[in-house]
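FAQ: What does a ligand-bound record look like?

Like this one, built around asparagine:
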Amino acid sequence: MRYTSLDAIREEIGRGSLSCRQLVERYLENINTKRHLNAFLEVFEEEALRKAEEVDAKLQAGTAGKLAGMVIGIKDVLAYEGHALQASSQILNGFTSLYTATAVQRLLAEDAIIIGRQNCDEFAMGGSNENSSFGPALNEVDNTRVPGGSSGGSAVAVQADLCLASIGSDTGGSVRQPAAYCGVVGMKPTYSRISRYGLIAYASSFDQIGVITQSVEDAALLLEVMAGPDEFDATVSQRPVPAYSQNLTFDRPARIGFIRDSFESPGLNSEVKAAVQGVLDQLQADGHTVEPVEFHFLDYIVPTYYILTTAEASSNLGRYDGVKYGFRSQNATDLASMYKKTRSEGFGKEVQRRIILGTFVLSADYYDAYYTKAQQVRRLIKEKTDELLSQYDFLILPTTPTTAFKIGENTKDPLAMYLEDIYTVQANLAGIPAISLPIGKDAAGLPIGVQLMTKAFGEEQLLAFSKQLMNHQPHLTA
Ligand SMILES: NC(=O)C[C@H](N)C(=O)O
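The answer part, i.e. the structure of the complex:
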């Protein structure tokens, strides 16, 4: 028996047959029996139980917040005061957060229970969780396969019923891709919708906090709680936040464009293609307008993404120098060797690769050829995407070209790994919201996800339509 939404939990609590303490005990037991999945780097056992008792008392008194009964795991890139934080990296070994991320603070203020810190790719760089310095998290469906990444531990935790929801971050698909591989819901809102204060920076013009849940309803509720202006992050939108969870009805025919180029790309697995085609057919049968659209930038989006994100990362990660945070090499003889050795020993291979690539594209001789050019292409991608979204309510495409691949399969070939992001990075380049919904399984039982994108700040219609899509097709429920 598993709970698939906060509503189901609250109903049971209301009936008197469940308390928050019992709920947390149940998740702790699951975490314990499924330790091999390596989803959590740390479990806040005592603290979660204490908080559960507090929430039980508040529920009795009628003073509990919106998220009472919601047990959440947070990706190891979100600051939580007094708790270790290390982006799954050795360079932050021994570091403790001095403050709490705004998003996490808002969850706590609504009585969410934070149960632990989740495994991910180092500094959120990766698509398989294999770049974690704590080893990969494992896909629960098949332990020889990756859960996706970078929010791999967060997706597995929801897949394996170790918590009800997870908070991850999405720079180029890090919430949606693992959600697809694990058969759960993953949503990344509009860039600037949620404060990034307290989120470890990877590529600041792309990074967004996102949610991984079993139901669209829970995604809506979490987004509504975390979103909105924040004095600690000047890039956050001042737009008021709609009550997403109260407006989940979508009762008109939608105009849907499916990106034809994404269906014709050679790397697309035939079972994934057939599953997404099945969704399109169903939508059409339901009276929605479904039309193919041209998007000729597909070949450019992965290079553009990796030039710009590595450039931003090379700058953001400059702060880890052994002076201020976490790890410092013991093998240094002078200041310069301290910087060098700290960074060489503290960062893993993929992070070093990206710092070097980013430094290269920003170097004086190559700046215009790569960085400036990539900024221009980003603009074109954004303009084309916005244009399509002025004609269509939603754009639909697969979340990923394949289902979860084998551990080790892509580690020797970074380009193959980067190409897994081909369908997800468009939303980050354009700054628009996108969601991955579970739509079934391949012959081996591996989950498949479909992705929907909508215009900036269109979260309300995206969530409402997603709910309809999930409810309407019985096989779509997680
Ligand atoms: N961080 C992300 O959103 C995932 C992407 N695969 C990356 O490595 O950049």
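Follow-up question: can I read anything off the structure? Yes, for example: The longest helix spans residues 367-391.
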